[in-house]
Amino acid sequence: MNVATLGPKGTFSHEAVKKYDPEAKIIFKDTIYDVFDSVKSKESELGIVPLENSISGTVGITVDCLQKFNLKIQKEIIVPVKHNLASYVPLNKIKNIYTTLQAYEQCEIYLRKNLPKSEITFTNSNSLSAQKLSQKKGDAAAIVPSTAEDLNGVKIIEEGIQDSKNNVTRFILIGDGFTQPTGNDRTSISIIPNVDKPGLLYSLLGEFSNRKINLSKIESRPAKGKLGDYVFYIDLIGHKDDEKVKDAFTAIEKNFILKVLGSYPREY
Fold this sequence. Notes:
CATH architecture of the largest domain: 3-Layer(aba) Sandwich
Radius of gyration: 21 Å
Order of helices and strands: EHEHEEHEEEHHEHEHEEEHEEHE
Number of strands: 15
Low-confidence stretches: none
């Protein structure tokens, strides 16, 4: 099975694929958009991308791609995230740090306390941060996953520098079509208002509350149109084929454009 994910080797995305299927043939891509495009074009059967982190929150480009591409979430994969600091010099000699934006956000308290004067250089992946360090050496450092030491020979000088020891990232498996109900499912939807009237969001939430449907997540993102237009993203407990969920969707569609992004087995 071909599975596309964010590369190169040694990323947490790579770890998520191995957790899903250790035997999968992995096709590494440079961006999350490229992962979606790989699945859409049939280059890959499935894709695995990060959706949200317990510290830094939702990965915006992933939800944007879920809205753009007609691909569905088929599974969620929870990966513990441990960030290490790698360098060839002691902590007090470090002047430059290579890191992804996500890793920086997840380690910001540590960095502000221990390396407040160091220059930050952002990269596209944790593994690329390690590669940059191995090329420069000197007074540089990199925030890397534990696997990066094996890949690039970098030396770990501090372990577990993330701001929360319970740091996890929720990855999603994307592909064509919906999965069948299991009795313990989560459904992700996007909602765009098609009318403008007071109390619209209140009435939306009421459709779920009245049917005792639990919402595990709700947030908004700009609709990429005029200022003030938003898309609401909601995770609810249940499957799209459950009767009360179908009933809620029917009521909601009177005032909203509703898109089901996936119904899939819950992992938490």
